[in-house]
Amino acid sequence: MAPASLRDEFPLLAATPQLHYLDSAATSQMHRLALDAVVRHETTRRANVSRGTYRLAEAADLAYEQARQTAARFLNASSADEVVFTSGATASLNLVAHSFGGTLKAGDRVVISVAEHHSNFVPWQMLRERTGIELVLIPVTAAGQLDLTSLPELIDSRCRLVAVTQCSNVTGAWTDVATLVAAARKVGAKVLLDGAQGAQHGPQDVRALGIDFYAFSGHKCFGPGGVGVLWGRGELLAAMPPFLTGGGMIGEVTAEATTWAAPPQRFEAGTPPIAQAVGLAAALEWMMSLDWPQNHAREARLCERLIEGLQRVPGLRLLGPGGGTASPRRAPIVSFEIAGLHPHDICQVLDAHQLALRGGHHCAQPLLAALGAEVCTRASIALYNDEADIEALLDGLGFVLRELA
Amino acid sequence: MNDANSLYQDAIKQFAQAAHGHGQLAAATGEAKLDNPLCGDRVRMQVAVASGHIDAIAHETKGCLLCRAAASAIGARAVGQDEAAIESVATALENMLKNGAPVPADWPELSMFEPARAYPSRHRCVLLPFRALLAALTKSSRYSGAVTNPSDYF
Q1: How many Å apart are CA A38 and CA A22, to the nearest integer?
Q2: ipTM of the predicted structure?
């Protein structure tokens, strides 16, 4: 069982002991420390940043920049100046597609994968329309993992960027980042990792990963909504034009022309999500205090038990790799179809049994098409889940079959 | 059997299972395909309109039980009705779901969706086939003659 105190650290879960929350791949619950940090900031340090000289504004500045340093430590970035606060992973990915993408020209190649969330798919299609880049897709295996056997043909001398998910939001499959980075380095291409799912499962080491950009969201990492991070190598950010423009991101504006501020401010036009960044930093500090090998082992046990139980459900087809400990290259995100039943109906019945799961295409329609599905039901496990949640889901599916048959 | 508050009334399951009107028309005068991007529900609705009234109707529906039951209800009752009547029932159904208005008098079977009032995210599942039907009727009135190449309209 998860320590009762862990569930109690999340105000919503503490207030609803009957709830089995299994939708953390969409939004994780918010840790009390993050919530407290937001409230403390808004009630004691609320002011705009990078503008005022009064003491309250100085306090807000300090808190915001400390949050940036915390995010840099979470990612093991070499400098906090490499951390850009955005509104979320989607905004981070769009930023790269516009700013880094704006440096590409017709015929340059961007490699993504079939497994991408639409957030890392559509921006590149739009870039293709704007600039004429060539967009090519890494296929997936029948188990939903990136099929890297064709990398030499895909990542060739025309390739400027490889932009892929760190972990599928549908199948839970982790990407073999090392192989991709090696292939990209051979041809001088950059690597962007969409960490929207990966960051929830522990602190990252962007330098060890050998990548160039990393994007993640606060609301999936036990923090507030409305804040995310783009990490980029300093020299790359410095060479990129801004995405959004406005206050706070300029060097000088004259009637004739404008110069840009240095990163990260260049990419933070307007008032940033200040309190949200402070709350996110509290969540990341909490995550960095945890024993992650132990957490991963526990998540894998729960995942394995879930998969084992699901495999006994009549008419159920799993999408993605196998079980927890048997297949370490998967996060505790498990999607499935049940013959003849629509995920919305499945989730509706489960909701009546206090189970919160997501049904639909999960903003990953190309992946689902590749896996021979249109929609599916997804259970995603986070630190606060325990055996009771898994057993409740397996029992709940029995109710589903009885009610919808 | 189930209680009156259950979303999944037997009537819904029966209508969905029956799939009244499922299929394609050889000579439609109007056709529309609508999606629900939230869940991937998809309805392709075809109508053949003659003298201002629906002479034949067919649909292909991929979706949840609510969406399929609504499409099936249309397949069972829409023939013989005109665009104004369909618009009226669609508006009444939306009011029933969102504002607690009575069940549309001429379509009493739509009472099967009354429990869905409590689930706003599912209203669009019920309404999608009606919206597809209205779009098909609009296209039918805009274009004269049978649809020979449905892709012209998408």
Answers
A1: 25
A2: 0.82
